[in-house]
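Notebook entry, structure prediction.
Reason for the run: the old model in the group folder had no record of what sequence produced it. Starting over properly, with the input documented here first.
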Amino acid sequence: MSEITYTFKYTHMEADSTLEALAREKMHGVEKLLQGGAEIKVEFARVSTHGNATERVEIMVVEGGYVHRAEHSESTYIAALNLVKDDLEREIVRSHRKRESIVRRGSRRLKAMLRWGSS
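New structure, fully documented this time:
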């Protein structure tokens, strides 16, 4: 399996190695779904609106020309990270199934053309 690289960005907060470790741990399940090398960009941000601070996590996975992205805002980074991980897993599985069905559809069409001539 090719290498997976991580890039971390912090907005309106200081860099935190515990958040990086937590993100790598949570993304382990997503890494299993990736085919080949990928780049994972993680952004942690503290968003303050009208005195209410919320924590936002955005993750973008670039894999073989495909981009998968998810973001959530919650009261804690852990809650936001869990939601983002679930969304990314869902999106990656959906994308892989979509590519697989396109290949199968093309194979069926080719088989029909070989069997019966043009269709």
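Summary: The chain has one domain: 4-89.
The old model has been moved to the deprecated folder.
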